[in-house]
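Students often ask why inverse folding is considered easier than folding. One informal answer: many sequences map to the same fold, so there is more than one right answer. In these notes we will look at a single instance of the problem. The structure comes first.
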């Protein structure tokens, strides 16, 4: 396609966009060389993002509708089978139809074990071809689901426009990108810049995103997060850091270097696994960016309810959503036939083969959990819950020591599902943005007046009346005892 034809198609599209839907057949008639309509349609698809056009079901093009999307999200039950088939195409292409068995299956299982171990010990992670495919098998489904739950925090508040520009820093094998594509409506125009330096991971990304949607325009950049330069004339509605901060030497510095590219009414989404080290690391970055500077503030979930206060507790907080259906490719790898040398692959030294390598079908390579830590930051100061605590009405967690053994009133955000084990009393992490130690609400006796503690969702704001403040020496934390004398209400904000 020559540049002259492309420019003529663009000129006609610019004129027609304000008159009527743009039809490739019509434009083909206007161009002197009479190009085939299929050629014109392909040019329109390639230029749609720069022209602000979306392709409609009838294959005509029209300007993207202004205004926020109307969310239809109701949760994620399963990883879409069509994406599973695309991943298995890659596995078959590299290893053959029996990719899950024998030596190839052992290589994938060893790669997944190695990734788990590196993440656990916070070691540097390298993605060769097999490691990238192993990561995709194990993490594509949960990464796909998690980003949609986080996006919905903004979507429900009318803060996601139909014309959206996204920068995904550390895009990996494409799980978050697929989730973004499927969360947004088909008539949204999405310009998606993906930064991913690993060639093997980028190749998986490209394959998985080939059919992401007719109005989802992905451009991938094979550069390090520390080195990618955002064009000066470009700003983003969403900056996405999904499962990447824990892999960076200086995550705070990397996040800061991208803040200038964030639109004033945009949002920064940071997501990490729920395990202790990565979740706490996320909060450390959040606090450095939101509390020590004035570039952004916390939109959710760890709200600062007291002006001028900041939390300094350990910050381990994460959400839990319903498990996914187990994808077929994970089940096949988990149940795959082990090769004769499987016992020498992967695992931590010093343990027996039986301990390092559970039997086929044990669930070692099944990952259907949806548990994650996240932070949404905004430069415009907007918060999901517009609430400011009043010292005349409620106690401040920063001053909890003075209230020990007393019954007090409190306002706090629910920051966990129940952390209790077995038959123990339900236990929930709570915070008000001023705490220096962990605070847990312990439900010792449920009544109709305090049941909102259990019913409330992660991130909901709760008011407590008559909660008993105690210090727990064993846990070095405050326990706020909720019993028959306590009233707990979800605060409508």
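Output (designed amino acids):
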């Amino acid at each position: 396609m020559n540049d002259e034809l492309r420019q003529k198609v663009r000129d006609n599209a610019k004129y027609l966009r304000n008159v009527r839907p743009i039809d490739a057949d019509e434009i083909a008639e206007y161009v002197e060389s009479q190009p085939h309509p299929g050629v014109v349609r392909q040019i329109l698809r390639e230029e749609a993002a720069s022209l602000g056009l979306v392709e409609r079901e009838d294959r005509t093009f029209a300007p993207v509708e202004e205004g926020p999307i109307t969310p239809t999200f109701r949760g994620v039950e399963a990883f879409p089978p069509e994406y599973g088939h695309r991943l298995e195409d890659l596995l078959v292409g590299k290893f053959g139809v029996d990719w899950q068995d024998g030596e190839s299956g052992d290589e994938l299982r060893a790669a997944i074990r190695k990734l788990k171990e590196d993440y656990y010990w916070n070691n540097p992670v390298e993605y060769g071809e097999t490691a990238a495919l192993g990561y995709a098998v194990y993490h594509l489904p949960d990464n796909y689901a998690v980003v949609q739950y986080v996006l919905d925090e903004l979507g429900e508040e009318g803060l996601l426009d139909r014309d959206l520009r996204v920068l995904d820093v550390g895009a990996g094998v494409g799980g978050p990108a697929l989730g973004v594509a499927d969360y947004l409506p088909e008539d949204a125009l999405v310009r998606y810049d993906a930064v991913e330096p690993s060639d093997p991971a980028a190749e998986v990304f490209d394959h998985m995103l080939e059919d992401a949607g007719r109005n989802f325009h992905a451009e991938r950049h094979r550069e390090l997060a520390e080195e990618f330069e955002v064009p000066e004339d470009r700003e983003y509605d969403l900056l996405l850091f999904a499962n990447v901060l824990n892999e960076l030497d200086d995550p705070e510095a990397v996040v800061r270097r991208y803040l200038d590219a964030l639109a004033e009414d945009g949002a920064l989404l940071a997501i990490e696994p729920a395990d202790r080290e990565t979740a706490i690391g996320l909060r450390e970055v959040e606090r450095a960016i939101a509390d020590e500077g004035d570039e952004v503030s916390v939109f959710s979930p760890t709200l600062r309810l007291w002006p001028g206060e900041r939390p300094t507790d350990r910050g381990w907080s994460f959400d839990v959503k319903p498990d996914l259906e187990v994808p077929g490719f994970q089940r096949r790898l988990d149940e795959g036939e082990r090769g004769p040398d499987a016992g020498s692959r992967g695992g931590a030294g010093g343990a027996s083969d039986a301990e390092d390598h559970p039997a086929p079908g044990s669930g070692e390579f099944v990952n259907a959990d949806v548990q994650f830590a996240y932070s949404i930051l905004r430069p415009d100061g907007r918060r999901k819950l517009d609430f400011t605590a009043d010292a005349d009405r409620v106690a401040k967690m920063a001053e909890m020591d003075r209230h020990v053994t007393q019954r007090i009133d409190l306002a706090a955000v629910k920051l966990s599902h129940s952390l209790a084990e077995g038959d123990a009393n339900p236990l929930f992490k709570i915070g008000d943005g001023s705490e220096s130690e962990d605070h847990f609400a312990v439900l010792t006796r449920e009544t109709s007046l305090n049941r909102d503690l259990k019913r409330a969702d992660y991130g909901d704001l709760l008011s407590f009346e008559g909660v008993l403040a105690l210090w727990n020496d064993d846990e070095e934390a405050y326990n706020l005892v909720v019993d028959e004398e306590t009233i707990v209400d979800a605060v409508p904000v």
